[in-house]
Amino acid sequence: MPMLADPSIKYKPYTPLNLPDRQWPAKINRAPPIWLSTDLRDGNQALANPMTIPQKMSFFETLVKCGFKEIEVSYPAASDTDFNFVRMLIEENRVPDDVWLQVLTPAREDLIKRTVDAVAGSKRAIIHMYNATSCLFRTVVFRNSKEETLALAVKHTEIIRKLTEECTAKYGTQFRYEYSPETFSQTEPEFALEVCEAVKKAWGKAGTAYDERIIFNLPATVEIGPPNHYADLVEHFSRNISEREKIFISLHPHNDRGTGIAAAELGQMAGADRVEGCLFGNGERTGNVDLVNLALNLYTQGVHPKVDFSDIQAVIDVVTACNDLPVHPRHPYAGELVFTAFSGSHQDAIKKGFEAQRARHAKARAQGEPEHWEMPYLPIDPADLGSTYEAVIRVNAQSGKGGIAYLVQQHLGLDMPRKLQVAFYAVIQEIADREAREMTVEDITTAFRKTFHLGGSAYEGRLNLKSFRISAEPAAGGVDGEAVDERRQFDGTVSVDGQLRVLRGDGNGPLSALLDALRTHLQIDLSLREYSEHTIGQDQNAKAASFVELVPNSGDVKETRASTESYWGVGIDADIAGSGLRAVLSAANNAIGDRPLPELKLSVGFNARSGQADIATAILNSLKLELPRRLQASFFEAVQRAAHGSGGEISYDALVGLFRERYGYYDEEENPRFAVKSFKLEHLNASGRAKLSGEFIINGKPVSLEGEGNGPLSAAVEAVNRGLDGKVSIREYAEHSIGEGSEVKAASYVEVAYEGPGGSPKWTTWGVAIDSDITASGLKAVLAATKAVELADEEARRTAGQK
Ligand SMILES: CC(=O)SCCNC(=O)CCNC(=O)[C@H](O)C(C)(C)COP(=O)(O)OP(=O)(O)OC[C@H]1O[C@@H](n2cnc3c(N)ncnc32)[C@H](O)[C@@H]1OP(=O)(O)O
Ligand SMILES: CC(C)C(=O)C(=O)O
């Protein structure tokens, strides 16, 4: 049947009470009501499968834990389960002393008797009796007149009084009484008052103390009118019932029109003292009023509700398991989506809200003022309910850059600059649109790592920084007394498509030096347009995060800066220079895409395209040695000389052989040319000097050496000098590790200067060695360098003898 064109022929409007002098609209609820949870009664009776005793027990314990002091635990006359549950609570002493058990009974003597029997022996119990009083129920259900309806209530109140007094005498149970004129909101207001006055009289012992008051519960058994109508009825009742001070007025709203919460709040403004309801609004039909919602509404007004939902998820878990009903995802305060924003402008506002609030709170804290919560779109701090902020922002195709940036900030600790937010937003948008689904935090962080080649080998790009050194040298061109800017030199090992390459470049700073290296060696011609950095974490765990935007170099500075094509990169490193360099390579990876890069030349013939770095790369790939820059230059000259006779061409093997011979670098274990057989290093008193003595093999021959110095290397030099006519001194020392874990070795590079007898001019040479012991590797490098000196010294003496 379709909806009626004129529903007035079927539905009559509610009859409002005429209460022109109503006071409630100006009132504000500044204190919580007395709460009565009826989950185990009204909630339970509405379930397809009423709760079992273990379910009721776990629900009861949850209510107690939340702080409920009055709990309607059952309708004992309904079933053995209901009856036995109450007995179990009492007999197993499960009820805390400050909690009142409430039980419901109809106005029938046999059932009242069973109800009182159920609570016999409990410390404190509220017997709750009801009979419907509205015209509809009088005529249709009970077929009673007004007088008979009133008489039914009075008679059974008297029965309850008698039975409870007997029970108190026998078991010491303390009783209170609650009476409900069921269907109150549809009952003639004067008749509801009349019945309640008669019930009060029949009970006969209402007092002003908390546990003496009679409770008149005013149910909106079915919500038939708007909440202001209900509030008028409550105010009318509250103003006109006699001995108001001996009464607690209780509200029992249902939610048929969806305004149960409003009805309860307005009803409290209208004078009610108590509210009955269920957690998350379970109950007959559309449910009872939701106590969690009501309590947290108060909380957000700065009023503690005196019930606690700090771990709301634990409460949801118990309630949904017992009721076998879900909590709607958009349920106030409790639904899984209520602290979530998908849409871009909401996310943006929340992100800005958090940032502003952090600053505001820091200021308030410093001034000893309250740190108020003021957050766009979030009326309550999810943390107060045990929820984390992670859930606040979720991303789909409706989301904007702000939300994505918030998640990256929360999960990776990175504060992206605004333009990078825009760039990364496009990446996520594309995925979200293509896959037509929500992007999880993991989707976003994975996309971030992939896009910017962060987070280990899984996401490495084609260019990958292995090691680097930044050095400074004055820029050319300074004239007398004029300040000269320092230039920076980048020397690094970069994995290029899996192959290690030595790259070198110069620039005003480390990043431009690396860009120069990329341009020179790999034909990647990019300029830096934007750079920013921040620290992640604190103290010794702090790292640096860098963000760069690179643009293709057009040759014209203005045009380059204005380029519409740009590539972002992100770098993280314990070292600030390292993070910037990694960011440049991250952006360069994005710029090169799949474009082929110039191959490493394995034949190192001397044409215009083979330079010092190419030679160093060949040594790196064959011997794993990362030559210091000055050694690269020195070896390059040696290679040029060696290749002179072959027109500048030299084979790969000849190159490696030349290196070994020249720098005494032999890593074979049997019959080593240079070895430290044994050595002893003594630290001499407090002078900080060291004495070295040991047995060494120098150029295949065993030699005993002894010397003193500031450390092992200078002691070795002193020992060597004892056997020379001239004098060697260390000019440069460098080292690095090779390999990983237990296989790691130290590579040492020593440049020594030699000055012949009689102060003949100085010349320098290098020694290179590796050893699993770093001191031994340094000593071996000194010996290897010395070998070259000895040869030159002998040569010098021979020449002198001939003269
Ligand atoms: C608004 C509310 O939520 S009220 C609480 C409702 N909760 C429940 O009904 C759950 C528990 N109920 C039960 O287990 C059963 O209904 C019982 C045990 C109470 C009674 O069962 P039965 O005797 O079989 O009666 P039934 O369930 O058919 O109830 C209807 C009868 O109770 C009467 N009745 C209804 N409410 C009341 C009341 N408050 N006081 C006295 N009698 C009542 C009806 O007029 C009807 O009487 P009739 O049979 O003479 O016509
Ligand atoms: C028994 C009464 C209080 C009731 O549940 C109702 O009217 O909804």
UniProtKB/TrEMBL annotation:
Q: In which pathway does it act?
A: Amino-acid biosynthesis; L-leucine biosynthesis; L-leucine from 3-methyl-2-oxobutanoate: step 1/4
> Which Pfam families would you find in this protein's record?
HMGL-like, IPMS_D2, LeuA_dimer
Q: Which GO terms describe its molecular function?
A: 2-isopropylmalate synthase activity; metal ion binding
Cited InterPro entries: 2-isopropylmalate_synth_dimer, AIPM/Hcit_synth_CS, Aldolase_TIM, IPM_Synthase, LeuA-like_post-cat, LeuA_allosteric_dom_sf, LeuA_N_DRE-TIM, PYR_CT
Give the keywords, sorted.
Answer: Amino-acid biosynthesis, Branched-chain amino acid biosynthesis, Leucine biosynthesis, Metal-binding, Transferase
Among its keywords, does the record have Transferase?
Answer: yes
**Cellular-component GO terms for this entry:** mitochondrion
Q: Which cofactor does it need?
A: a divalent metal cation
Instruction: Give the reactions, separated by semicolons, that this protein catalyses.
Output: 3-methyl-2-oxobutanoate + acetyl-CoA + H2O = (2S)-2-isopropylmalate + CoA + H(+)
What's the family?
Belongs to the alpha-IPM synthase/homocitrate synthase family. LeuA type 2 subfamily.
Q: What is this protein called?
A: 2-isopropylmalate synthase
Q: What is the lineage of its organism?
A: Eukaryota, Fungi, Dikarya, Basidiomycota, Agaricomycotina
